[in-house]
Amino acid sequence: MFKFFRSCIYFKIKKKSAIELLHSSYFSVLEQIKIVGPDSLNIVIITAFFLGMVFTIQIVKEFLYINAAALIGSVLTIAFIRELSPVLTSVIIVGRIASYFTAELATMSVTEQLNALYLLETNPLKYLVLPRVIACILMLPCLNIFSFITSLFSSSFICFTVYSIHPEIFFVSSFSSLIVQDIFKSLLKTIVFGFLIASISCFWGLKATGGAKGVGKSTTLSVVTSLLAVFIFDFLLSYIMFSKLGSSIKAL
Fold it and tell me: What would the 3-class secondary structure string for the chain be?
């Protein structure tokens, strides 16, 4: 009888701990979404704004030289939606979020805070890694869209103020080359990049050993590995998605 009551009490305690852990995991996902998304939005917009202007300056003068002002919006739109916006967004997230994730988890690892999760029979991958992966997968496509829109408007601004190209001409050219498939492919890129960035940064964080020096080493390796992964997979995805497509400008 005593063993029966003890088993019941143990079951209730364990069930309560599991419910509390599930509840905290839900809020952990929301917290990571806030860190990856809204907290990164300002730097993404500012960077995209200036990069869009710089890229436009280099492109516009060459097209004006060959009297092809009507194609400027199309070329910039294709470049932004297919490559610059997803890669730029991912690089910013690597610098801001991957380093943060790795440093946070590495500190927990070297100070043996992960042992508390094992005592609760909790898998650190589900409690620590999964919320971060979900947040990156959900938020990078959103940040990518903001980056694309910002780059487009900053390009239009430079075209109008510096080269006297009316915004109507720019956006008519831009929207004529913007297709739904390119948007979905751009979003797919950032989903893949988000998964890679979160997974790599969490891997190096959980693997950290050796105190403060180990935290710094893991953070550096995380950023370098994440950047390499983004650039390598960007080439692979671009080759798969766009290598067999015809010229978007020729179709205009």
Answer: CHHHHHHHHHHHHHHHHHHHHHHHHHHHHHHHHHHHCHHHHHHHHHHHHHHHHHHHHHHHHHHHHCCCHHHHHHHHHHHHHHHHHHHHHHHHHHHHHHHHHHHHHHHHHHCCCHHHHHHCCCCHHHHHHHHHHHHHHHHHHHHHHHHHHHHHHHHHHHHHHCCCCCHHHHHHHHHHHCCHHHHHHHHHHHHHHHHHHHHHHHHHHHHCCCHHHHHHHHHHHHHHHHHHHHHHHHHHHHHHHHCCCCCCCCCC
The answer for residues whose C-beta is within 8 angstroms of residue 87's C-beta and 6 or more apart is 230, 231, 234
225: nearest Cα among 198, 250, 244: 198
> What distances in angstroms separate CA 19 from CA 38, 134, 135, 159, one per listed residue?
28, 20, 22, 57
What's the pTM?
A: 0.85
What is the rounded CA–CA span in Å between residue 100 and residue 121?
Answer: 26
**Average pLDDT of the residues in 163-171:** 90
Give the model confidence (pLDDT) of 101-137 as tens digits. Answer: 999 999 888 887 777 776 666 677 788 899 999 999 9
Q: How many beta carbons lie within 10 A of that of residue 109, not counting itself?
A: 23
